[in-house]
Design a protein that fits this description.
- With 377 residues, the chain is of the alpha/beta class.
- It has 2 domains: 6-298, TIM Barrel, CATH 3.20.20.70; 309-376, no CATH class.
- It is 44% helix and 13% strand.
- It has 15 helices and 10 strands.
- The protein has helices at 36-50, 69-84, 106-112, 135-151, 164-167, 171-181, 206-223, 234-241, 256-259, 273-276, 293-298, 301-316, 325-328, 333-340, 350-376, and strands spanning 6-10, 54-59, 89-96, 116-120, 155-161, 186-190, 230-232, 260-264, 268-270, 285-286.
- Helix 1 (36-50) links the parallel strand 1 (6-10) and strand 2.
- Helix 1 crosses helix 2 and helix 8 packs across helix 15.
- The longest helix has 27 residues, at 350-376.
- It is globular.
- It binds iron/sulfur cluster (SF4) (3 copies).
- One iron/sulfur cluster is lined by residues 15, 17-19, 22, 24, 61-63, 97.
- One iron/sulfur cluster binds at residues 15, 17-19, 22, 24, 61-63, 97.
C-alpha cells in the first residue's frame, strides 16, 4: 500500500489583511518559480523514499493569493510535469482568506485545485480585519467572494475559529450565518491558540466551550435531513461512532508529526503551519539546505520530541487511562504548547473533547436505535 504523504506549503509569508489572532510571523518573502523546481524535486524524492505514489499538497500562507494566479498556473504545469515524469501524482488543495478573490482565479481553482477551495471565517467576526481595521468590510468582501466562487461552480469549505464572543452567541445564529447567509454546506470549527505574535486567540475555558459545542452539535443534528450539511468535527465523530469510514481532524490523529510537514517560502520546515514561523526553535531544518527531506526529518531532534509525545502522555498524564485515548491521543501539540509552554502535557481542551466524544457517541447510538426500530416496524 502506498503511504500517504501530506505537506503544507507556505509559498508566501505576505498577507493582505491583519487578523488580530494571526500566529504567523509575516514578511515580504515569497517562493519564486526559479526555486520551485528544487523544492518539487525534494518532495518527489521524499515520496519515492517513503513509497508514496500520491501526495497531498496544501497551499497556505500568509495569504496564497497575494502571489497571483499566473504564478499558480505556471507552478501547476511545472510540478505536474515533474511528478508525471516519475509516475507520481500531486494533489493540490487551496486555503485562502478570499479577500483578493476575483474571476481571474476561477480557472486556476478549476484546473489545479479540482474546483474546490478552503477558506476561513469566524462568527461573529471580531478578529478578522482588513489592514484599515474594518471587520465589517472584511465580512462583506468574504461573503461576496464565497457567492462568486459558488456561482462559478467552485465548492467552498470553511474553517471557523471559535473565540469568547462566539461562545456568547446562540449556536443556531452561528450555524445560520454559515449555512443560510453564506450558503456553505461544508464547514468545521477549530479551537484557538495564542501562537506567535497574536492577540485574541487565547485558550478558551473548557466549560463554556463544551456547552457551545454540544449546543451546536444539537442544532446540526436537528437540521440533518432537512439540510445536507457537513459540520466538522461532529460529522467525522458521528461516522466514527457509527462504524463508518471517517478521518478525524489532525488534533486527534495518532501522531500528527508522522503525517505532516510544513515548508515555508525560505525552505524552513516544521510540523505544520502553526509552527513554522511562530516557533522557529521547533524547526525540523531547511528543505533547500538539505539534500534529502527524509534525512532532514529523520535527523531532527525537534521532530523526535513530537514523535515521543503520545507515549509520554500515556505514561505521565491521565491519557493513559482515558477511555477516549484511541480517538484523541492526547490532542494537539501546538494548542498544548501555546497554553502550557511544553508539548508534554495533554491538550488544554481535554475536558471539552470528552464532552464532545460522549455527546457524539450518545447521538450515534440514538440514531442506531431509531434505525433498528424503523426496520422492525
Ligand atoms: S490569519 Fe491568515 S488571513 Fe489573517 S492575517 Fe494571518 S495569515 Fe493573514
Ligand atoms: S500541531 Fe496541532 S494543528 Fe498542527 S498538525 Fe498537529 S494536531 Fe494539527
Ligand atoms: S480526552 Fe483528555 S485525557 Fe483523554 S486522551 Fe484526550 S487529552 Fe488525554
Amino acid at each position: 500500500m502506498s503511504r500517504p504523504f501530506s505537506v503544507i506549503l507556505l509559498p508566501t509569508l505576505r498577507c493582505n489583511v491583519a487578523c488580530d489572532y494571526c500566529f504567523e510571523v509575516k514578511s515580504g518573502l515569497s517562493l519564486t518559480l526559479e526555486q520551485l523546481p528544487q523544492l518539487t524535486e525534494r518532495l518527489l524524492d521524499h515520496m519515492e523514499e517513503r513509497g508514496s505514489t500520491q501526495a497531498q499538497i496544501y497551499w497556505q500562507g500568509g495569504e496564497v493569493m497575494t502571489i497571483g494566479p499566473d504564478w499558480f498556473e505556471k507552478a501547476n504545469l511545472q510540478m505536474g510535469d515533474a511528478a508525471r515524469a516519475r509516475g507520481l501524482v500531486l494533489n493540490h488543495f487551496l486555503q485562502t482568506n478570499l479577500i483578493g478573490w476575483s474571476a481571474r482565479w476561477h480557472n486556476v481553482v478549476r484546473t489545479m485545485f479540482g474546483s474546490a477551495l478552503g477558506t476561513s471565517m469566524d462568527y461573529p467576526n471580531v478578529h478578522r480585519r482588513l489592514k484599515n481595521g474594518s471587520t465589517e468590510k472584511y465580512t462583506e468582501l468574504w461573503l461576496a467572494a464565497v457567492r462568486d466562487a459558488k456561482a462559478a461552480g467552485i465548492e467552498v469549505g470553511v474553517i471557523a475559529v471559535l473565540h469568547p464572543t462566539t461562545l456568547e452567541t446562540p449556536p443556531a445564529d452561528f450555524y445560520n450565518f454559515y449555512v443560510r447567509d453564506a450558503g456553505i454546506t461544508d464547514f468545521q470549527v477549530n479551537m484557538p491558540f495564542p501562537g506567535g505574535p497574536s492577540q485574541g486567540g487565547d485558550t478558551l475555558d473548557s466549560g463554556p466551550l463544551a456547552h457551545f459545542l454540544v449546543g451546536l452539535m444539537n442544532v446540526w443534528l436537528a437540521r440533518t435531513g432537512d439540510e445536507d450539511v457537513r459540520l466538522g468535527p461532529f460529522y467525522e465523530l458521528l461516522n466514527t461512532f457509527a462504524g463508518r469510514p471517517s478521518t478525524l481532524p489532525c488534533i486527534w490523529q495518532k501522531n500528527c508529526a508522522d503525517e505532516f510537514v510544513s515548508i515555508d517560502a525560505r525552505g524552513s520546515a516544521a510540523l505544520c503551519d502553526c509552527w513554522v514561523t511562530s516557533y522557529p526553535e521547533h524547526s525540523f531544518g531547511n528543505a533547500f539546505a538539505s539534500q534529502s527531506l527524509g534525512e532532514m526529518l529523520g535527523g531532527s531532534e525537534a521532530r523526535a520530541r513530537f514523535l515521543a509525545r503520545p507515549e509520554k502522555l500515556m505514561r505521565d498524564e491521565e491519557c493513559g487511562t482515558c477511555e477516549w485515548l484511541s480517538m484523541c491521543h492526547g490532542g494537539c501539540p501546538v494548542r498544548t504548547f501555546a497554553d502550557k509552554g511544553t508539548i508534554f502535557t495533554k491538550d488544554p481542551y481535554c475536558e471539552a473533547y470528552k464532552a464532545l466524544f460522549s455527546h457524539a457517541r450518545a447521538a450515534a447510538s440514538r440514531m442506531r436505535m431509531r434505525k433498528l426500530a424503523a426496520a422492525a416496524r
